TrEMBL record, chain A:
Stated name of the protein: Chaperone protein HscA homolog
Family: Belongs to the heat shock protein 70 family.
PANTHER family per the UniProt record, alphabetical: HEAT SHOCK PROTEIN 70KDA (PTHR19375)
NCBIfam families: HscA (TIGR01991), PRK05183.1 (NF003520)
This protein's UniProt keywords: ATP-binding, Chaperone, Nucleotide-binding
Function: Chaperone involved in the maturation of iron-sulfur cluster-containing proteins. Has a low intrinsic ATPase activity which is markedly stimulated by HscB.
Keyword Transmembrane: no
From TrEMBL, chain B:
Protein name: Iron-binding protein IscA
Transmembrane parts of this sequence: none
Family note: Belongs to the HesB/IscA family.
Cofactor(s) named in the record: Fe cation
Gene assigned in the entry: iscA
Domain Core: 1-103
InterPro entries per UniProt: ATAP, ATAP_core_dom, Fe-S_cluster_asmbl/transfer, FeS_cluster_insertion_CS, HesB-like_dom_sf, IscA_proteobact
């Protein structure tokens, strides 16, 4: 007998047409799955009643372990047990080694697609994430009693194309249909129903075990725009625990290094004390050491003093994020708390004081992202036909392509709502040019070298025409998951080339923020650089054009003196265009224009004569 | 009493209604569909229809339209957990046969 769920009025589905969907919070440390049942979103526990699945996968010669079973092996078998694969996904080896120099893994594979050598062979981070997804999807399939129509997976707002694509690949590998990738802060806002609330600015404060993220969102006509992101990828609740451990070590007069056992005991006690002090004013800590029991009473005030510097650090990141977003504290309408560490009363107090409003904490901060994803999955699967909720995200950085002179032409500006498709027409630069290289870039700066290269491809088979005559339409498409595809088509022949952007390396967490900041700081330089490049490109276009004309008609229409004068002017222009003096290049271009004016006139007359030769005036 | 409800089911319905924040009760009904002809309807109710009858069962308003009532007479609604899955189940003395998955039935 099937188990039924309560539907919204008038929305009972026909048997065998229940569309089951789930939301997955694929976290760095922990992952969760949630679904909407009987109109209520809730996280789905495993057979042991645990909601949280540690994001750990252990590869053993006879089996693959996921979650708590793998966690047990993280210390005894670190090389084959992969922790926090999310930090590695969509990144190059250089990125990983620079950022996390102390990982216990043996890396293999090529530089752009690093893999981890384990007893069962090379494993890439996509496979690890896929194992975690498989586990959660199986759990949801059992809990919901049927196959899933699809899932919504959450990703950090700062994830770039490579990281999003890799996450989607992981889902594909796990055999699950991705309805949408959703930004984590957006999911948290959805869980609190803010998407149907008042339009305005929302701050999402996410303090997890090992990372801190602050996101500033703006809700505008049902669309969440990410105004800025910030944070610290090495700050979290674990640091609170470590601060308490350090305090205990000094209070107990212990000398480091301590035995692993004692360290672990201290850490357990510290973690317990932190949790207990959320609801009581003091706690007794007992630690067994060399047949003695060391005892200490710790008060809430003492805990606050220990962690206060860490909380202040998060608030500084909040201030920066607000500044980047260009909004004042007063404009922030709601503050959403995400992550287990936001249970600490001091964190809530300080965040509340900083933003001058009571943060939203009613939904379990460990589950809020998964719950938001579940609500979105329910809508996308089509279980709420009447719902008007169409949640859209935006592109985090501008997308564009390289034009002559190393300049970036933006095709899709930053913060465009997705899905989006935009086309722009480009033309050939040289006479008889039959191919065009398309270089796809992401970033806010004006010059190619300052933006991130995403992909390159070539459009071939353009018919030979004079420079500027070909019409090449380049279309950029970003789908609802924020993934980009680019196509180029020459309009007269219809020849086409396209690429799905699967970039080979990832950006650092802070890179997007850095890139945005740089675009502001360097705005003036960039404009200067752009003007210079434009003049240089114009100069070389003029030189090429005149030289081509000289080859064809120079002999016939010019006296030797005139020809020498033009050639000198061209030489002068070529020389000046190497310099960085915009005004002088501009002047030199004008000079060439003037000196070639009569030559151009004669060429025109001559071609008209040729065209009219043999025709009587009456015919014209 | 037209229909009954176990304590577990009543408790669940109440908590779902509270969490939903609105609604006057729970609609039980049947509709003609599915591979065995009829399927159960279980929905929240915001507005009553003209042919609805309201029953108070274990402090919960159960709303059944007059056409469905004939097929549901004597039915017990239960809330059960099967492994990880949980949901509502109808025990209907009028049902003569069910399809394989039990989502639809005939009388």
């Amino acid at each position: 007998m099937a188990l039924l769920q309560i539907a919204e009025p008038g929305q009972s589905t026909v048997p065998h047409q229940h569309r089951l969907a789930a939301g997955i919070d694929l976290g760095t440390t922990n992952s969760l799955v949630a679904s909407v049942q009987s109109g209520m979103p809730k996280t789905l526990p495993d057979a042991n009643g645990e909601d949280i699945l540690p994001s750990i996968v252990s590869y053993q010669s006879d089996k693959v372990l996921v979650g708590n079973a793998a966690k047990a092996l993280a210390i005894s078998d670190p090389q084959n047990t992969i922790v926090s694969a999310k930090r590695l996904i969509g990144r190059s080896l250089a990125d990983i080694q620079q950022k996390y120099p102390n990982l216990p893994y043996t890396f293999s594979g090529d530089k752009a697609h690093p893999t981890i050598a384990t007893v069962v062979g090379d494993i890439n981070p996509v496979q690890v994430s896929s194992q975690i997804l498989t586990n959660l999807v199986e759990r949801a399939t059992q809990a919901l009693g049927g196959d899933l129509e699809g899932v919504v997976i959450t990703v950090p707002a700062y994830f770039d194309d490579a990281q999003r694509q890799s996450t989607k690949d992981a889902a594909q590998l796990a055999g699950v249909n991705v309805l949408r990738l959703l930004n984590e802060p957006t999911a948290a806002a959805v869980a609190y129903g803010l998407d149907s609330g008042q339009e305005g600015v929302i701050a999402v404060y996410d303090l997890g075990g090992g990372t801190f993220d602050i996101s500033v969102l703006r809700l505008n006509k049902g669309i969440f725009e990410v105004l800025s992101t910030g944070g610290d990828s090495a700050l979290g609740g674990d640091d609170f625990d470590n601060a308490i451990v350090d305090y205990l070590v000094s209070q107990f007069n212990l000398q480091r290094p301590l035995s692993h056992q004692l360290e672990r005991q201290l850490l357990e006690q510290a973690c317990k004390a932190k949790e207990l002090l959320s609801s009581q004013d003091s706690v007794d800590i007992d630690v067994e050491h060399q047949a003695n029991t060391l005892t200490l009473s710790m008060t809430k005030a003492q805990l606050n003093a220990l962690i206060s510097p860490l909380v202040s650090k998060t608030l500084r990141a909040c201030r920066r994020a607000l500044k980047d977003a260009g909004v004042s504290i007063e404009e922030v309408q709601e503050v959403v708390m995400v992550g287990g560490s936001t249970r600490v009363p001091l964190v809530r107090e300080q965040v509340g004081q900083y933003f001058k409003r009571l943060p939203l904490t009613s939904i379990d901060p460990d589950k809020v992202v998964a719950i938001g994803a579940a609500i979105q999955a329910d809508v996308l699967a089509g279980n709420k036909p009447d719902s008007e909720m169409l949640l859209l995200d935006v592109t985090p950085l501008s997308l564009g392509l390289e034009t002559m002179g190393g300049l970036v032409e933006k095709v899709i500006p930053r913060n465009s709502t997705i899905p989006v498709a935009k086309a722009q027409e480009f033309t050939t630069f040289k006479d008889g040019q039959t191919a065009m290289a398309v270089h796809v870039l992401q970033g806010e700066r004006e010059l190619v070298e300052d933006c991130r290269s995403l992909a390159r491809f070539e459009l071939r088979g353009i018919p030979a025409m004079t420079a500027g005559a070909a019409h090449i339409r380049v279309t950029f498409k970003v789908d609802a998951d924020g993934l980009l595809s680019v196509s180029a088509m020459e309009k007269s022949t219809g020849v086409e080339a396209a690429i799905e952007v699967k970039p080979s390396f990832g950006l650092e967490d802070g890179d997007i923020i850095k890139m945005l900041q740089e675009s502001v700081t360097h705005a003036k330089d960039d404009i200067q650089a752009r003007m210079l490049k434009e003049q240089q490109v114009e100069a070389s276009r003029v030189v090429e054009g005149v030289e081509a004309a000289l080859v064809v008609d120079g002999e016939r229409l010019l006296s030797p003196q005139e020809r020498t004068a033009i050639e000198n002017a061209l030489q002068e222009l070529t020389k000046i265009s190497q310099s960085s003096e915009i005004a002088r290049i501009e002047q030199a271009i004008k000079d060439v224009d003037t000196i070639t004016a009569s030559f151009a006139e004669r060429r025109m007359d001559s071609s008209i004569k040729t065209a009219l030769a043999g025709h009587s005036v009456d015919e014209v | 009493m037209a229909v009954t409800m176990t304590a577990a089911a009543a408790e669940r319905v109440k908590s779902f209604l509270t969490n939903r924040g609105k609604g006057i009760g729970l609609r039980l009904g049947i509709k003609t569909t599915g591979c065995s002809g009829l399927a159960y309807v279980i929905e929240f109710v915001d507005d009553l229809n003209a042919d609805d009858e309201v029953f108070a069962v274990n402090d919960v308003n159960i709303i059944i339209d007059s056409k469905s009532l004939a097929y549901l007479e004597g039915t017990e609604l239960d809330f059960v957990k099967e492994g990880l899955n949980e949901g509502f189940q109808f025990t209907n003395p009028n049902a003569k046969g069910e399809c394989g998955c039990g989502e639809s039935f005939n009388v």
